[in-house]
Write a structure and sequence with these properties.
This protein is an alpha/beta fold. The protein has two domains: about 120 residues, D-Maltodextrin-Binding Protein, domain 2, CATH 3.40.190.10; about 100 residues, D-Maltodextrin-Binding Protein, domain 2. The chain is about 35% helix and about 20% strand. The chain is built from ten helices and 14 strands. The strands form three sheets. A seven-stranded mixed β-sheet has the order 1-3-2-4-13-5-14, sandwiched between helices. A five-stranded mixed β-sheet has the order 10-7-11-6-12. The longest helix has 14 residues. It is globular. Its main location: membrane. This is Lipoprotein. Keywords: Lipoprotein, Membrane, Palmitate, Signal. It is a lipid-anchor.
């Protein structure tokens, strides 16, 4: 049986309240260091939960790991749930995003092991090539700081815009130095970028949301991030202090096993790339 659950806002609110009153949630408090019971991991549905479910079904029992997967469709709750102890770990994000999240929200989440890269891509229902975008075309980009900067870098790397010198991971349209096509940018929640494709000329979409929407990054993207020297690998993460949880160590080893590498390569065909 797959130990997967969809969390609603009500359930999360109840979990947070319970943690506030008892110092523990469905995971264990880092203060108590009680590492008994199942390891509860928050994950985006695709590909993170799919990879974890492969581990749970095929590898965890033999390794003596009781793994439970909880799916989230946003990029905020997995970290806040890990911080408050509602879950033990999460698997959905990259280092620039986590750095920005910890800084802005005062959380204490740390990476454990990097597993894969989901190349960011530019997609369109209206043109077949990036250079076919007309003057004044509207491009949807994720509205969170890190993914927007990453999207703009993708466009810059492919000659559609030029960013100002020194523009970093938190670049915004204001950091564009040259925009020869006079592109207009529509900032939307990352999860909504695939749905925006009918309303804009093109959209920059995170790999997991592209796959969930039925897009094939390796085939459908007009331009796609290179995996070489890419800082956006996705990793297993925990609240600081729980890095030595023996359950987390078991999962980290399984997530970087030859079996998981083969699963990723066979299932995602280059749309998700192992980082180990």
């Amino acid at each position: 049986m797959r130990n997967t659950a969809k969390l609603t806002t009500a359930v999360l609110a109840a979990g947070a309240l319970t943690f506030g009153l008892t110092a523990c949630g469905s995971g264990k408090s880092s203060a108590s260091h009680d590492y008994s019971g199942p390891l509860v991991v928050a994950a985006s549905p695709v590909p993170h939960a799919e990879i974890l479910n492969f581990v749970e079904k095929n590898l965890a029992k033999k390794a003596g790991l009781d793994l439970q997967v909880k799916e989230f469709t946003d990029y905020i709750t997995p970290n806040t749930a890990t911080e408050d102890g509602s879950v033990d770990a999460n698997y959905f994000q990259n280092q620039p995003y986590l750095d920005d999240f910890n800084k802005k929200r005062g959380t204490h989440i740390v990476p454990v092991v990097t597993v894969h890269l989901e190349p960011l891509g530019l997609y369109s229902h209206k043109v077949k090539k990036a250079d076919e975008l007309k003057s004044g075309a509207t491009v949807a980009v994720p509205n969170d700081a890190v993914n927007e900067g990453r999207a703009l870098k993708l466009l810059a790397d492919n000659g559609l815009i030029t960013l100002k010198s020194g523009a970093g991971n938190d670049a915004t349209p204001e950091d564009i130095a040259k925009n020869p096509k006079h592109l207009q940018f529509k900032e939307v929640e990352a999860a909504q970028t695939p749905r925006s494709l009918d309303d804009v000329d093109a959209a920059v979409v995170n790999g997991n949301y592209a796959i969930s929407a039925g897009l094939k990054p390796a085939k459908d993207a007009l331009v796609l991030e290179s995996a070489k020297n890419n800082p956006y690998g996705n990793f297993l993460a925990v609240k600081k202090g729980n890095e030595n949880d023996p359950r987390v160590k078991k999962l980290a080893k399984l997530l970087t096993s030859p079996e998981v590498k083969k699963f990723i390569e066979d299932k995602y065909q280059g749309s998700v790339i192992p980082s180990f």
